[in-house]
Amino acid sequence: MAHDKKRFTPIRRRVLREEIREQVIDDILSGRLAPGTRIVETQLARQFGVSQAPVREALRDLALFGFVVCSPFRSTYVREISTEDLVKSYPVRAALESVAAREAAAVIDEDTLAQLEDLIAAMRSAAEANDYRAHVDADFAFHHTIIKAAGNDMLEHVWQSMRLATTTLVTHSMIQMTHRSMGEIGERHVAVLEALRSRDPLAAETAMRRHIEEPGEWIREALRKEELKAAVDPPERATAV
Q1: Which residue has the higher pLDDT, 107 or 172?
Q2: Engineered SS bond to 16: which of 54, 56, 91, 161, CB 3.0-4.6 Å?
Q3: Whole-number pLDDT of residue 174
Q4: Residue range 83-92: average pLDDT?
Q5: What is the rounded distance in angstroms from the CA atom of residue 29 to the CA atom of residue 211?
Q6: pLDDT value at 176 more than 80
Q7: Helix crossing, 52-64 with 41-48: angle to 10°?
Q8: Which residue, among 11, 10, 29, 76, has the nearest Cα to 172 in the 3D structure?
């Protein structure tokens, strides 16, 4: 009977939804859509030459992943990541990615290890060329490769929801707040790769946890210094430009 038939989302609509979602994510992470920018459904539909339905579905996904925020009046804005958000993300990322590294170490193959080695080489090249975007892309790909190698779909879904905070931390906090160079940030991935190459789950878990927790300490220290400076500086000096 008709009422017993399941309703399926047309394949083409699903593809459109994913294409739109990934393009908007790329625009946000690349800075083409700045934090606080309003995203208008109708304009996005015209840009992609589609109806508003797949756009609405893509924006719903983006809200779930934390890339956009929907206001009570149905306006959608690119989410602004605060320093507090970044600090809070460290222990969550450390927990997730240390589990991923532990699981990946037991099953990782030579091809995946070669991919990770190539990505470290890409970070080194980007640092030499002072190419922030290329460095961020290689850094993200390195971590994503390990997440995928773990073969845990639930873990990957949660990790993907932190993608905006992760990218913001690499481009803003790590470089601007702690004054760490791209070269230093890139070389920190070597210890993780070597632990995975040893195929020792505990060593991989420990290396990844340190890889993520140490920058969290750097950020907290930078914030403490800023707070101390603000406390001792006169108001006039603190607000002068």
Answers
A1: 107
A2: 54
A3: 59
A4: 79
A5: 22
A6: no
A7: 120
A8: 29
Q: For residue range 120-130, list pLDDT tens digits in order.
A: 999 999 999 99
CA distance to 87, 118, 124, 164, per residue, from 214 (Å): 12, 24, 20, 20
Alpha-carbon span 158 to 93, nearest angstrom? 10
pTM: predicted TM-score of the whole model, two decimal places:
0.72
| Residue 201, phi then psi, degrees to nearest 5 | -55, -40
Residue of 1 and 180 predicted with greater confidence: 180
In 104-120, which positions are buried (b, 16+ CB within 10 angstroms) versus exposed (e)? bbeebeeebbebbeebb
pLDDT tier for residue 219 given thresholds of 50, 70 and 90? confident
**CA–CA separation, 9 vs 16, rounded Å?**
11
